[in-house]
Amino acid sequence: MESKHACGIPHGALAGLRALIMVGLGLVAACSGESYLEGRVEMRELNIATKYPGRIARLYVEEGQRVQKGQLLAEISDPEAEARMTQADAGVVGAGAEQAVVDDGARIEQRRAAKANMQAAEAQARLARVTAQRMQRLFSEGVVPRQRLDEALAAEESTASIYHAARSEYDLVLAGARPQNKTAAASVTRAAEGARQLVQAALTESRVIALADGEITSINFHEGEIIAPGVPIAILARVDRPWISFNLREDLLQGLQVGQRLTAKIPALGQAGESVQLQVFRIAVLGDYGTWQSTRALGSYDLRSFEVRARPVQPVSGLRAGMSVLVPMSDLGRGDDPAG
Fold first, then answer.
1. Which CATH number fits domain 11-43+241-332: 3.30.565.10, 2.40.30.170, 1.20.1270.10, 3.50.50.60?
2. Distance between CA atoms of residues 339 and 172, nearest Å
3. How far is Cα 245 from Cα 31, in angstroms, rounded to an integer?
4. For 76-114, what is each residue's pLDDT tens digit?
5. How far apart are CA 312 and CA 174, in angstroms?
6. Where do runs of H (alpha helix) occur along 43-145?
7. Do the Cβ atoms of 233 and 73 come closer than 8 Å?
8. What is the pTM assigned to this prediction?
9. Angle separating helix axes 146-175 and 108-140, nearest 10 degrees
């Protein structure tokens, strides 16, 4: 007589059931004869990295620790960036001072000196003009020779030219720099500020913060180690939006739709994992490799596998990535064993 398993299943049939599980269809069977679609809990993982190289000075988290968005996770030491910041600060100060000189124009002492020179030239021109007028009268009366009149007229013309030059110099001092010079100085200042912002960005990246609420699942580097740009220091799993991933053969998809509710069981959670409500949000075909089953021996077609993703309708306490999730096939409209 053929021996039977504790569930009342002949050992030959039990071996066939184990072979079905090994195929990877995501199906399991209970002793009651109910078939289940088996999935696992997945969580979005974020790589915590920095854009610039450096040495880890402080590490504030451990594996398994829950963190909140914006929480400081690590500090990176970058002495070169700090030195560049000193240079950038000096560049901003120097460019700002040059722009202030251009914008403000001449110093008050220069304006006073230019005004004094203009007033002195004006006095000289006025005296020369009066002297020339007097010489003109005296020459008309025959008191002075023509030579004296010519000298007075030349002095009047010379002092007038000197006055106009001093007046122009004074106006130039009051007007300050040309608009083009002011624009050039402003451009130099903006360039210096931009260089400083670049260095500041590098220093900001030296403080590594959490990108979202979650749990630190792994730490790849520790204090004192040098890291390269973009290499993850740690991995953060987002525990706020977990989902369950199922692999389902296409001949079992009939009637399953996005938005459909499923009742699942999570064995790892015990009583709390009974009758967990899920909602399907994604149905997508998997890659060709290892996801199809040939039925051509029966004169039919190849079966492909699809990934079905569903989220818990309500938060499930204690849910962790990797946990198994069971959904009765009857929930999918497939009460009988699809293996036949």
1. 2.40.30.170
2. 98
3. 24
4. 888 877 788 888 888 888 888 877 777 666 677 777 888
5. 76
6. 79-104, 108-140
7. yes
8. 0.55
9. 160
